[in-house]
Amino acid sequence: MPINIPKALPARDILEKENIFLMEDERAVSQDIRPLNILILNLMPEKEKTERQLLRLLSNSPLQVSVDFMHTATYESKNVSRSHLSQFYKTFEDVKEDRYDGMIITGAPVEQLPFEEVNYWEELTDILEWTKTNVTSVLHICWGAQAALYYHYGIQKYPLPNKLSGIFKHRVMESTEKLIRGMDDEFLAPHSRYTDVSYEEVKTHPEVTLLSASDEAGALLMMSKDEKNVMITGHIEYEATTLAEEYERDKAKGLNIEIPSDYFPHDDDSQKPLNRWRSQAYLLFSNWLNYYVYQETPYEWE
């Protein structure tokens, strides 16, 4: 089934060329189907790129999905036009009386700051508290995952000596869990971050289940015991070239940055990297939509 997104959204043209099944509002309302309503809080600086990445993964499902985008009111991104935000994005004030079947909270380039020093932290905590009653299931990515672990479960992040960037092997630790049903016992996923959370603290926390981890990259995939919150410390939504673009950006800034691990063929940054995590990403998003959103959300919110 298709994703229902605004007709003028720039990501539409790219996704249509990939044969992603998209639907416009006019056609969606003509079908006697209750779509899944998904809210995406996009905290990434390059918002249009993140829109495309997430919409692509949400498309791989037999369910009809309707998507709203939200940005923070207390901080306005410098890498996206105001017209794009005003046309396609809402703020928390716009949605706080609404209910959503699912929500995605992205990463953000603020991980080296203490949570309380992030200029939209108070607004984000209001949103995280609101999800407890107004959203069926929340998927948190990278810094969004660290923020959720800290706010909901008191698990703090800590700085790494060097940026963790590259493609890492992860092992499945709870193979019977629905979220990772069908995934390989060992799979690849990208990471791009300067901070981490304690593997032992996650593993022993009474309210959190550790589903997948890496010897090099630590905990990747976690879920709350009540199955309400899913946390992914990596960027399984990334496209093949995203880490390369970040690497070139960091080099251009003069940062002392290492080449992403196991990413470029033969560690040659002149060669085009391959996407070796796509199937696992599609499966993870499909499982989340099916088992934790569609099968858990009420048909009509009270």
Automatic annotation (TrEMBL):
MF terms per GO, please?
A: homoserine O-succinyltransferase activity
Q: What is its EC number?
A: 2.3.1.31
Name its pathway: Amino-acid biosynthesis; L-methionine biosynthesis via de novo pathway; O-acetyl-L-homoserine from L-homoserine: step 1/1
Q: Which domain of life is it from?
A: Bacteria
Catalytic activity field: L-homoserine + acetyl-CoA = O-acetyl-L-homoserine + CoA
Binding of substrate occurs at: 163, 192, 249
Catalytic residues of the enzyme: 142, 235, 237
List site positions: Important for acyl-CoA specificity.
111
Q: Which UniProt keywords apply?
A: Acyltransferase, Amino-acid biosynthesis, Cytoplasm, Methionine biosynthesis, Transferase
- Tell where it localizes: Cytoplasm
Annotated site, Important for substrate specificity, chain positions: 192
Gene3D superfamilies for the chain: 3.40.50.880
Q: What class of enzyme is it?
A: transferase
The record's listing under NCBIfam families reads:
metA
Q: What does this protein do?
A: Transfers an acetyl group from acetyl-CoA to L-homoserine, forming acetyl-L-homoserine.
The record's family statement is: Belongs to the MetA family.
The protein depicted here goes by the name Homoserine O-acetyltransferase
Task: State the organism named in the record.
Answer: Pontibacillus salicampi
